[in-house]
Amino acid sequence: MTLEEKDSLFARIISEHLATQKTSPVYVPTSHVEAKGFDTSDTNNALWRLKDNGAIKKYRRCWGFFEVQNGKKKFVITSANEQQTDEDAEVFEVEVVLGRLAQMTKNRGGVSKTNDAVVLHLNKNGDLFKEPREKFCYEMMGAKVPLKILRYFIDNPNTEYEQSTEDIASSIGMKAEQLRKDIGEMRRTIKNRLKLPLELFEGRQGSGYRLNPKVEIIQEN
User: Fold this and answer.
1) What does the DSSP 8-state code read for residue 13?
2) What HEC string does 16-69 produce?
3) Phi and psi at residue 85, to the nearest 5°
4) CB 14 within 8 A of CB 94
5) 127 contacts 192 by C-beta, under 8 angstroms
6) How far is CA 82 from CA 32, 79, 86, 104, 158, in A?
7) pLDDT of 107
8) Beta-bridge partners for 218
9) How confident is the model at residue 149 (pLDDT cuts 50, 70, 90)?
10) Could you tell me which of 7, 212, 3 has the C-alpha nearest to residue 105?
């Protein structure tokens, strides 16, 4: 199994527990991780890479037990250092970045998507480009709102249209109608300047917008 495949599998393990617990941080039993074939070294390395790739914010080992509170599965921490009782289970407490984690589960570690994927780059100066950069570049630092929108979708690609236009606009701090207008302008500008064969943003009537799954954006530090 390659490193990318390990990272994708680990992301799916986290997502499975997230779907049940419906909260971040999510608590992943070490026994489940081990059952998937990860030893201590594999686990530590995968968590480090997922953090480095922006799928998780932070993580730690702790001990405790699961219980149901108000119809939801909750984990009660009893110790951050060692098992206190025979009933305590060892878990990884993982704070996730929802959109990026979803990407990692589907993109085989986020390294590449499909053979026909379009790879774009976004550098720290706000330049969105594809190679060669000298020919295909959209300088976004002066366009603060479009850059803010793009960065939001990179972290929250909305792959399954989980968020409506109103939800996304509210998260960004703007009106839904303004978001629609800005995305329309971004589509035209980015497609023209980068000569893209497809739209950066896809839309579905009544379901909002998502980052095109066939586009991979690599953020450069």
Assistant:
1) H
2) HHHHHHCCCCEEEEHHHHHHCCCCHHHHHHHHHHHHHCCCEEEEEEEEEEEEEE
3) -135, 170
4) yes
5) no
6) 18, 6, 11, 31, 38
7) 53
8) 121
9) very high
10) 7
CA distance 15 to 203: 25
Q: Are strands 89-96 and 118-122 parallel, antiparallel or unpaired?
A: unpaired
d(CA 221, CA 208): 30
CA atoms within 13 A on the CB side of 192: 7
Reading phi first (left if > 0) and then psi (alpha if -120 to 50, else beta), residue 209 is in beta
Contact indicator for 55, 10 with CB cutoff of 8 Å = no
- Residues forming beta bridges with residue 202, ordered by sequence position: 210
Q: What type of residue sits at position 121?
A: H
Planar angle of CA 178, 181, 184, nearest 5 degrees: 150
Average pLDDT over residues 145-167: 88
Q: Report how far residue 186's alpha carbon sits from residue 140's, in angstroms, rounded to the nearest whole number.
A: 10
Closest listed residue to residue 66, CA positions, set 34, 94, 96, 89: 89
